[in-house]
Write a structure and sequence with these properties.
The complex is a heterodimer of chains A (about 210) and B (about 160).
Chain A lengths: L6 H8 L5 H13 L1 H24 L20 H22 L23 E3 L2 E3 L5 E4 L7 E7 L3 E7 L3 E3 L2 H6 L5 E9 L5 E4 L3 E5 L4
Parallel strand pairs in A: 2-9
Antiparallel strand pairs in A: 1-3, 3-6, 4-5, 4-7, 7-8, 7-9
Helix pairs in contact in A: 1-3, 2-3
Chain B lengths: L4 H9 L2 H12 L6 H17 L9 H24 L11 H20 L2 H12 L4 H8 L3 H20 L1
Classes of the chains: A alpha+beta (about 210), B mainly alpha (about 160).
């Protein structure tokens, strides 16, 4: 199964649950990502069989079908109370861990062209010359739970945002300020779940095609 | 930059499957015209590549995706004009393709039925009844993450078994 960040869109796409914009983005993506396309094809085939034959497939003589809702019984057994108490203790421990002082982040002093060696963040798009003002910025994910700060620059920082996804939509007000023919660059920083800086990408330049 | 025709051909032909999927999903899986549409798209893409219209501003995949999307829209517009003048006869399925498709569908159906109930249940609720992950989780008394995990594993099992 692909580890691509679009994998969650596969089922949503097949079940027609994506917005028009997300649908177009995903369709463009699977023209470029073999892994996603193979997974999409396989799931589409399964879905077609289920849709066409579901009545027979899921009808069983020894059950009337799945319950509409599993009834929840409230049994106040000692084991349940013990589990609840353990849950409360775990919650208190988590609060203590979260509020403790964070580990000191390494100090980075970078010029515009420097890259942190070690864990690298691959910036996917936009890059180079692009025909239109980009809608999304997309990069390769690092570890699970990483948080990313994305920054857009011309001569100075234009915009910055933080996300846990590996792509982010440029706000419309930022896109409207971007001028065809001008060069821009963008950069991604990755932080661990504890808040420590773990990687910085190089600044990737792109240029929006000017008017002809 | 010099382009070798045979290299261009094979480069563009790699996209036949993904173009076919996109076209059939957009126009209907049983539409008899789909192969013609796909061939037109491939021809157009190849011509544009040979004429140097693909300049590398985007990936080749994105370039071909754009051509595909435009052709689909054109096809739908043309069909709408034709249908205004009369109904379209029902398409006749190709017998050979139908037999192969039916055998594969039979095989898949059998494999789905042979899955353990916990995997069959998520397939039924998520795909057949089209409940959301949260609704499926609530019905089965598990977390949405567990639902995703079971869906993923169910597909993995089906893929593994159908290869045998």
């Amino acid at each position: 199964m692909t580890s691509c960040c679009y994998r969650d869109d596969i089922d949503e796409y097949l079940l027609n649950r994506l917005s028009e914009e997300d649908k177009a983005a995903f369709e463009e993506h699977y023209f470029n990502c073999k892994a996603c396309f193979q997974e999409l094809k396989a799931r589409a085939e399964v879905l077609r069989v289920i849709k066409n034959r579901g009545q027979d497939l899921f009808r069983s003589p020894d059950k009337a079908g799945l319950p509409l809702a599993r009834p929840r019984k409230l049994n106040f057994k000692p084991a349940l109370w013990g589990a609840a108490a353990a849950g409360v203790v775990a919650l208190i421990v988590c609060v203590i861990l979260i509020t403790r002082p964070r580990e000191t982040a390494p100090t980075f002093t970078l010029s515009g062209d420097d890259t942190v060696r070690g864990q690298a963040i691959g910036l996917i798009s936009p890059r180079g010359d692009v025909a239109l003002t980009p809608v999304f910025l997309e990069w390769s994910p690092l570890a699970e739970g990483a948080e990313y700060t994305v920054s857009l620059f011309d001569q100075q920082r234009l915009w910055s945002e933080t996300t846990r996804e590996c792509r982010i939509r440029l706000p419309e007000e930022v896109r409207q300020r971007m001028i065809p023919g001008q060069a821009y660059s963008w950069q991604v920083k990755a932080f661990s779940p504890q808040g420590a800086l773990t990687a910085i990408s190089s600044r990737l330049q792109f240029k929006i095609a000017g008017p002809n | 930059m010099a382009h070798h025709d045979s290299e261009d051909d094979s480069l563009v032909a790699q996209y036949r499957q993904v173009i076919s999927f996109r076209v059939r999903k957009a126009l209907g899986w049983n539409l008899p015209d789909w192969e013609d549409v796909v061939n037109e798209i491939l021809t157009q893409a190849l011509q544009k590549v040979r004429r140097g219209e693909f300049r590398g501003e985007s990936s080749l995949g994105t370039f071909i995706y754009t051509i595909t999307s435009r052709r689909i829209i054109d096809f739908i517009r043309q069909k709408s004009k034709v249908l205004r003048h009369g109904p379209e006869p029902a398409p006749l399925p190709d017998p050979q393709t139908s037999i192969e498709q039916k055998e594969r569908a039979d095989q898949l159906a059998g494999l789905i039925q042979s899955l353990k109930p916990k995997y069959r249940d998520v397939l039924e609720l998520f795909y057949f009844r089209e409940l959301s992950r949260e609704e499926v989780a609530h019905r089965l008394g598990i977390t949405p993450a567990k639902v995703s995990e079971r869906l993923h594993y169910a597909h993995k099992l089906l893929k593994k078994k159908i290869k045998k």
